[in-house]
Amino acid sequence: MKRCDFFSIAVVAFVVLVALMAGGCGDGGGGGDADSDSDSDSDADADSDSDADADSDSDSDADSDADSDSDSDSDADSDADGDGDGDGDADGDGDGDGDADGDGDADGDGDADCSGLGEGACVAAFPSCVPVYDDACCPSCGNAKYCADCVDWRFERCDPIDERCDDGPGGCGVTPQWACDGWTADCSDASGPASPSPCGQTAGCVQVEACANCDPAPTECHAVRAGSCEASCEMAEPECPEGTVPEAENECYTGFCIPAGVCP
């Protein structure tokens, strides 16, 4: 073989070798995988995990924590506070106020659930709850738009004490000072011509009448007390007219009947 033929064969072999080496480098990304990025995983982003986002964790969002939401904390909700609820504070209770109780204010005291309590139960729930009254002759609650020349206080609802007393936010209706102080109403002037209802001149007073099987007694105005609805003494329960229930004081019956609405 001539020397020039040998040289030509060597050049051709070198060219073939270079072509083979170039084909073995994959897609030109230098990563050794089948995608077009520069990392060693099989997705198309530039990080080293196996998901399709651009962070270094293995979830499918674009933040760097390991949960599946898009905030930067490690819990599974969509806020950035680090607890597992969906509000923006770090207390874990589900409200947005920053304290660890479940109510919506920021005082941390865990307000009692006063809603739905009747008047007697509300007075008994002091110091957590206080009663709210509205004047039926000139109401501030509801959609009524009239104001008559009279006074007729009616129990409206039961609210947490910090909403009604000590410059709380309030709302419609009135909470008397005696309720904020943990006392009962003074009913000495509750009945009079200014009110169309017996005992309606003073908030917190109700009309009582003698029970059917008790000694006769005049109709009176009594204050709703914490124990007006509860009796535990060994005494037969008095018989009361329809719409009324036996009144109690000091855990025993008084011989009077009060409106059933006081003790629902």
Short description:
The protein has 264 residues and is an alpha+beta fold.
The percent range for helix content is: 10-25%
Q: What is the terminal separation in angstroms?
A: 120 Å
| SSE arrangement, N to C | HHEEHHEEEE
Low-confidence stretches: 25-31
Q: Give the strand line-up of the largest sheet.
A: 4-3-6-5
Structural class: alpha+beta
Multimeric organization:
single chain
Radius of gyration: 40 Å
Q: Enumerate how many helices there are, as a single number.
A: 4
Largest sheet: 4 strands, antiparallel
The overall pLDDT, averaged over residues, is: 79
Percentage of residues in strands: 5-15%
Q: Give the total of beta strands.
A: 6
Question: What is the approximate shape?
Answer: elongated
Task: Record the SSE blueprint.
Layout: H1 3-23, H2 119-124, E1 129-135, E2 153-160, H3 161-164, H4 177-180, E3 205-210, E4 220-223, E5 244-249, E6 252-259
Antiparallel strand pairs: 1-2, 3-4, 3-6, 5-6
What does this structure look like?
This protein is of the alpha+beta class. Helices cover 13% and strands 15% of the residues. It contains four helices and six strands. Strands 4-3-6-5 form a four-stranded antiparallel beta sheet, with no helix packed on it. The chain has a two-stranded antiparallel ribbon with strand order 1-2. A hairpin with a 2-residue loop joins strand 5 and strand 6. The chain is elongated, with a radius of gyration of 40 Å. Mean pLDDT is 79; it is low at 25-31.
